[in-house]
Amino acid sequence: MKLYRRSLWVFHLNSGSCNGCDIEILNALAPRQDAERLGVKLVGSPRHADAILFTGPVTREALPSVVRAIQAVPEPKIVLAVGACACGGGIWHDSYCVLGGIQGLYRVLKSMGITPPKTFFVPGCPPKPEAIIQGILLARGLVRQKQVRSEYYEEQALAEKAEVDLHRLFHKYFWVRVPPEAARVKYGVAYY
Amino acid sequence: MRPRNKCELMTNLRRFGEPRLRGKYLFISRIKSGRLKDLVDYLHWRLGGYYSTSIGVDERPLDGYFHVYHVFVLEKYGVYVLVDLPANPGHPVVESITPIVPAANWAEREIMDFIGIKFRAHPEPHRLILPDDWPDNVYPLRKDFPYDEKLPTSDKIAKLVRESPSDTWIAEDSEDHTAIPVGPYHPALHEPEYFELFVEGEKIVDARYKGFMVHRGIEKIAESRLTYNQVPFIAERICGICGFTHSTAYCQAVEEAARIDVPERAEYIRSILLEIERIHSHFLWMGVAFHLLGYDTGFMIMWRLRESIMDLAEKLTGSRKMYGANIVGGIRDKWDIKEEKVALINDTLGKIREEYLKYVPKIISMEEIKKRTRGVGILSRSDARKYSVLGPHARASGINTDVRRYRPYAAYKYVDVEIPVEDDGDIYARIIIRHEEIIASIDLIHRLLDNIPRTHLHADTDYIPERRYGIGCTEAPRGEDLHFVITGKDNKLYRWRPRAPTYNNLLSVPTMLRGEHLADAPIIIASIDPCFSCTDHIVVVDLRSGRRRPLRTGGLVGGR
After folding, report:
1. H or E segment at B448?
2. Is the CB of A185 inside 8 Å of chain B's CB atoms?
3. pLDDT for res A157
């Protein structure tokens, strides 16, 4: 992520979250963690932002505003989906007035012909401020992904392989970092 | 003359309908025709009680009718009055009580949205909660609507993208309004609430609120997908700040309905966790209030102090926010507070108290803070009654109300709770109330820890009978949480309606804003503690020039 070598300005976009993640985001900026020392600044307008801190399961009512805000962020942009709701809809995933997290939103964006921005996932309900900061650092390329299994969402593909990948097992059980080339995934990022 | 006891109350109520007393619940059914308004007037304005909320229930599978229950709280008699209004499914219309009790405005509109009952003579019978593109005549809380049916979204979204950014969200423009887009964006949400302020120069003339962007269908999910002991988890996620008080209120409602006795130790642990939550919530609010007053050092101090409380919560429950401790009938085993944890809590709170008293009394006695907050955003006592405001907001307006003292639940039955009350009704009074509550809460936790008894942690809850009514109330940091449940078959709820205190408190905001300076708007809106940074997206409409421009608090207090 060479583009974001310098200070990352983030815009906080709430799409109907319960405030849990939103306050943890502010906690990350409060004195204990103080994300501003890493150049992370919360800005008031999406036009000023490089990245979107996205929370909430995307409610129907909020959808138009969310689409507008994402469009307003200039390219190149990235999205950090913070919290279980943003990552996959969370406990609300199949409710009648919820789109089901950022993937539901991206389905809508694709249907309108907009390519979804590159997305990083910070799961947790709510994720701790440390996890949010790690997500930001990951986006800036300051830390490597501590990923232990790359086909996180692809159980089927894993079963088809059948052969046991000893190398990967070694990494899984001894907590060694996988090189970033192997860690490229479709969507999921697992933090341990 | 006010009746002296429950018996006399019952006699008096026979003038209006048929009262039935079931434990704490006084149902009034078969209201005589034309007497509803008199009854509501009597309950809300003459008996010293207050209107709490209204609940719409689709009881067609049970008795063939829709029902509306208006809940009134009569603290003096220790009862909840439920005014039962059945509505015929063929022609669901009942009389509105909003002309008498303005606080019922939103609750009735919500029932119109969700159940499809019409209210006769409602002053503004518009859609409140459901999104604008939701089809008419589809009512999600009716029992025949599946909870996971995703209706197709309209072409509104595609239209939004096609049109230029300036002319969609200010679509109501006419000759007297001109749209001026400030910044390319404004619809975006920081916390999804939206106020429109009408100003003349710098003075606010009127305000309008548009919210409910966080409607996630929680009631429907709980009724259709979750079992009794799963609902506390979703109840905690109603709000990320005061979640535990919601799950406690829910558990209490089910325990009331099923007549389960909660062991004392569980009650004590609930109370301790509730007080910890109150402290962190008030710290948070104070920080935000100082930030909005332009005193960012205060914000940083409060949030630094708050971290120690969050650490404490994490050590006690394993999580900073969502404690996950409640089940129906008590507390989960692993959330027990053992000896070593008692010492830990006492130590931590001692340190927090010391540091808190080092800073905050000085901050709130500063002239700058006083000048910004004294005499600003006044809510008089009568207005507070009119909108049924709750919690610290009501106590700052001179109404002595607190669920912990007057309808004690959990371990508040066993200890004395200090309730600070102020008469000024301005923002400074609200700061003082919360300041005193923080200290009272810390002392209260110490006292609770001294007396914590050794009993079981949860009661046996094998069987929960069907179609029982229960109301659970807790004093959340922002006011009274009320959860109404009707139990159902198959280990599931039939109906669950949580009502958060901001629901009532927000209705009073336009009254407080009228006549104030524009620069004070953020702190006035934030002074009710409306779940955080909702002050962010305000549209200002200048009546003189007819110009509209979006306003963010960032612009008012110098950026975040």
Report:
1. helix B427-450
2. no
3. 54
Domains identified in chain B and CATH numbers: 6-120 (3.30.460.80), 218-535 (1.10.645.10)
Distance from CA of B519 to the nearest CA of A (A): 18
SS3 of residue B28 by DSSP? strand
Alpha-carbon span B511 to B520, nearest angstrom? 14
Asked whether the beta carbons of B30 and B41 are under 8 A apart, the reply is no
Under an 8 A CB cutoff, do B131 and A96 touch?
no
Task: Write out the DSSP string of A97-130.
Answer: TB--HHHHHHHHHHHTT-PPPEEEEE-SSSPPHH
Q: Which of A188-192, B206-210, B326-330 has the highest mean pLDDT?
A: B326-330
Pair B202, A45: CB distance under 8 Å: no
For B377-431, what is each residue's pLDDT tens digit?
889 998 888 888 888 999 999 988 889 988 899 899 999 898 999 998 899 999 9
Beta strands in B166-287 (DSSP E): 178-179, 194-200, 203-210
Selecting from B150, B185, B555 the residue whose C-beta is nearest the C-beta of A96 gives B150
DSSP state of B45: I
Q: Domain coordinates of chain A in residue numbers?
A: 2-139, 158-191
Q: How far apart are CA B516 and CA B199, in angstroms?
A: 10
Average pLDDT over residues A114-143: 88
Report pLDDT digits (tens) over B21-64.
988 899 998 998 888 999 999 998 888 888 888 999 999 988 99
Closest CA to A136 of A177, A192, A79, A175: A79
pLDDT in tens, B78-98: 889 999 999 999 999 999 999
Q: Following CA atoms A128, A129, A132, A138 in sequence, which dihedral angle do they give, to the nearest 10 degrees?
A: -110
**B104 DSSP 8-state letter:** G
- Tell me the mean pLDDT in the region B329-335: 90
Domain A2-139: assigned CATH number: 3.40.50.12280
- State whether residue B45 sits within 8 Å of chain A by CB: no
- Opening angle at CA A22, ends A20 and A26, nearest 5: 115
CB B51 within 8 A of CB B37: no
